[in-house]
Amino acid sequence: MTQEEVFKNLTAHCKEYGFIFQSSEIYDGLSAVYDYGQLGSELKNNIKKYWWEAMVRLHENIVGIDAAIFMHPRTWEASGHVGAFNDPLIDNKDSKKRYRADVLLEEYIAKLEEKNNKEVEKGRRKWGESFNEEQFRATNPNVLRNQAKIEDVKAKMVAALNANDLKALRDLIIECEIVCPISGTKNWTDVRQFNLMFSTQLGNISGEDGTIYLRPETAQGIFVNFLNVQKTGRMKIPFGIAQIGKAFRNEIVARQFIFRMREFEQMEMQFFVKPGTELEWFKAWKQTRLAWHKALGLGDQKYRFHDHDKLAHYANAATDIEFEFPFGFKELEGIHSRTNYDLSRHQEYSGRKIQYFDPETNESYVPYVIETSIGLDRMFLAIMSSAYKEETLENGETRVVLGIPAPLAPVKLAVLPLIKKDGLPELAHKIMNELKLEFNCQYDEKDSIGKRYRRQDAIGTPFCITVDHQSLQDNTVTIRYRDTMTQERISIDSLHDLISSKVDYKNLFAKII
Ligand code: GAP
After folding, report:
1. Ligand 1-lining residues (CB < 6 angstroms)
2. If you take atom 20 of ligand 1, which residue's CA is the nearest one?
3. Residue 480 needs a FRET pair 20 to 30 A away by CA distance; which of 46, 99, 167, 361 works?
């Protein structure tokens, strides 16, 4: 099955089992807007908890806030979003499809990189043990030709984006002979800038412009509260402020399910440091965040850093943690060294002094900032896409299983009486009533035990507890493990400790501190 088919199946699975629904589906849906269902919202809450506790609870110098979505409109002038939060868009005149010009070029570059990787693999197969990749990349004519093209296109793209030269962007697309994936033609319009912020009206003040924006990032809610938190929390630099919340962007090119949405959620942390120390902190946060991802065990090879070729004018370093989604490596989290740009701009636009007094050096300064910013929905997609497996079992049967890391699984265990009589449901309820004080449990007595196991596999429940006649005699049950499908008989009294040891977030945190 191709990755595209797997992704299609995953999308259908998310709906079938109550993870994600198209927004307002009964009205045919709203493009790039989604609702999380009964299991999706559990998983989402668990991801939030993993992030919040790893950031706020495990770091004594990080605190969390919850700022409003609406902010004073001057915020977005100060931050630069009103003037420059734009995407360069280009339309194909034949298919009438719209694309981001820079994304078309990045995809072109990615294809050349892929070609080179294939050449390298060919070489490896041909030369076997004696293969030297470095030497091969430095001498193979095909690889060298592609590499030269990659560097040339990158340099031209960065120059065009930095100079806001939209004509040069279009010329580069033509020069690379990029075709529209739908129509297959090179019949492109000019490139135009498009602001991504949604606006609405505040109140009903006649004669006054009450335009306000739905925040396109949560970060500004942290910056404008820097002084409030620093003073009331008596925070000393270096320290961080974390926040989870909704953000809104009028994405024109909204594709790939919940990867790019118009309403989404971010988990952001701004870490305030002394000027001159920011690049050290940037390096440290890259490693801290990568460790957080890897602790989930989705596969270390699924992550890579992608340093930005084009730095935003306020940044002096930026990288993405990319994840291997079914449609390729894509940005999952951004880590940015944002200098003192945001705080300085808010100081200028608000007329308030936004500085930190360092008691050790008796100096005041505008702190520098390292930002870590991850999309909650993208994290959800990363987990679901690596968890989703269609397996053929030894006996020829098939099963769909979600191998969600146990601490994040929406339902931790299912309690299943073997049959609906003889006192088995009563004992099953008794077990469930005790365990539900700590874990999200499901009770299920309908259909054969095999069918019930499959239902739980399909929603990623790590443990199924089966209550049978022997349970009434000796106070034991069967516990079945989702990933291995193995079963063992254990005492009812030991259930709590066993499950707790597997689903506890402690297991994840122990790997990252
Ligand atoms: N405050 C910095 C900031 O917002 P960004 O790279 O624009 O930086 C950060 O966004 C993260 O937010 C991304 O890495 C991605 O995970 C998520 N994100 C951005 N736009 C998104 C969208 N339209 N839909 C879903 N997630 C998005």
Report:
1. 217, 219, 249, 251, 260-261, 264, 266, 268, 331-334, 371, 373-375, 377-378
2. 260
3. 46
Q: Is the pLDDT of residue 303 over 80?
A: yes
Measured CA to CA, the distance from residue 244 to residue 268 in angstroms comes to 6
Q: State in Å: Cα 216 to ligand 1 middle.
A: 9
Q: Output the residue whose Cα is nearest ligand 1's atom 27.
A: 375
Nearest to 342 by CA among 443, 453, 218, 251: 218
| pLDDT, tens only, 410-458 | 999 999 999 999 999 999 999 999 999 999 999 999 999 999 999 999 9
Residues 25-40: pLDDT tens digits? 999 999 999 999 999 9
208 pLDDT band, cuts 50/70/90, is: low
CA distances from 190 to 211, 255, 512 (A): 30, 22, 48
Looking at residue 310, what is its pLDDT?
A: 78
- Within a 10 A sphere around the Cβ of 200, how many other Cβ atoms? 10
Instruction: Identify the residue whose C-alpha is closest to ligand 1 atom 26.
Output: 375
Q: How far is the CA of 245 from the centre of ligand 1 (A)?
A: 12
Please give the single-letter amino acid code of residue 105.
Answer: L
Backbone angles phi, psi at 297, to 5 degrees: 75, 25
